[in-house]
Amino acid sequence: MPSGIYRSAKIVWDYHLLHQPLVKSDCLFVLCSNDIRVAEHAAQLFLQGYAPYIVFSGNVGDITQGLFPCSEAEHFANIARGMGVPNDCIYIEPLATNTGDNIIKTRLLLDAKQLNPQRFILVQKTFMERRTLATFEKQWPNKSALVTSPPLMFDEFANDVISYGDLVNVMVGDLQRIRYYPALGFSTEQTMPQSVWQAYQHLVAVGFDDHLSPDLPRD
């Protein structure tokens, strides 16, 4: 990766991370995806006693179509079971198709199970921490939440599932959503340093625009 692109990508990566210290909570809420490291991280947190149960939320998206033999939530739950999480401590929401939908449908699931957790630990991919928490704050404002992700550095993240190019494209798209979603009522406002937006503009200018929403401004 050319040094200028690397610098801009690292600025965006660092902005997405919140580095929140964790405290024991009522529920681990896992927003599922193609990255099974998120499932493993959530299972480790459960086994360390951070919450008494886990909710896995996620259907099948464009990226995970054909990747797993079932929904993202069911696949993640199977990973957690394999790591020692008891089945009766796992709840599965297999229908949600985006971050807001994860929250809305998980609310419905917990209501149906007559569960009323007050404090959540949101478990997400590393570069989606900020948008996940901002979405939760808007969609479930009377609850408390922290967000965490697998402890990976930018240089460690890419693997055989997601390349560095894919990673940068998705980070750029998430930054666009962080900037413009609050006006649409999807998430809370986030302070964004000018240096972060300049890094975004640089990455878009050199072609990292595959994950931009066509319904939102590009700049």
UniProtKB/TrEMBL annotation:
GO terms for cellular component: plasma membrane. Pfam families: DUF218 (PF02698). InterPro entries: Cell_Envelope_Assoc, DUF218, Rossmann-like_a/b/a_fold. Residues 38-143 form the DUF218 domain. This is YdcF family protein. It comes from Photobacterium phosphoreum.
